[in-house]
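Problem statement: downstream parser choked on a complex file, so we are re-checking the raw output for the FE2/S2 (inorganic) cluster run. The parser issue turned out to be on our end (a line-ending mismatch), but while we're here, posting the original submission so the record is complete.
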Amino acid sequence: MESSVAIRGRGFGKTLRRDAWWVPPLSVALGLGLAGAYATWAIFQGNHYFVEPYLSPFYSPCITASCPAEIRLLGIGWWPLSPAILMMGVILGFRGTCYYYRKAYYRAYFMDPPACAVGEFRGDSYKGETGFPWIVQNLHRYFMYASVLVLVLLAYDTIKAFIFHGAFGIGLGSIVLTINLFLLSGYLFGCHSLRHIIGGNVDCYSCTLGGKARHSAWKKVSWFNKRHMLFAWCSLVFVCLTDLYIRLVAMGTIQDPRLF
Ligand code: FES
């Protein structure tokens, strides 16, 4: 039986595997490429990101002078560029350094390796993430802290999506923003760094202050952690669809049905 190292050593793409190993990396390349292209277009498009009472998650928090007064966070307009650029900095940093996405795009775009037991581009000079630029992946936990703040702001936007000119109501957009918040929360709650901080770094719960509560919280985030890839994709696709929905309503292309 040949070892996987011997198989990989034969050259790029060489393998003894008989299954369609190339389907996952190809799907990831297409999926991330499409989502990235849409998000980039939406960020620089700069219009139709708000229609009462819905604010696109790409443009929250709205803190530029050009933001409509009713959605400008705390009435402040200090950020000189598009608010979407600030938000995308956090989101790109968070998703780009995510442990799941790292595996996915290393395989899909860098073929490093394309799949298990499949020959890769580079030889044996593997340095992992110990050298520049990949060492910056270690900043993931700090992007996670920033993303917690972003999630709180999105929760605030979602609550506002149920208030129509001062009165409670439910539109299809309110439901869309609620699902979007749930999926983004599920993705964040499954983060490996968050799980580590909540309880993964504890060796003995019964010897730790608040150990019972931490163990209970750790078990809950572990449920999301096991489904991290699922939430990563669902939240990525749905946040783009949420922006698209609000954009189409703001442009008058479609109507937002009022359910209540
Ligand atoms: S590991 Fe994926 S978001 Fe933290």
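For whoever reads this later: The first helix runs from residue 4 to 8.
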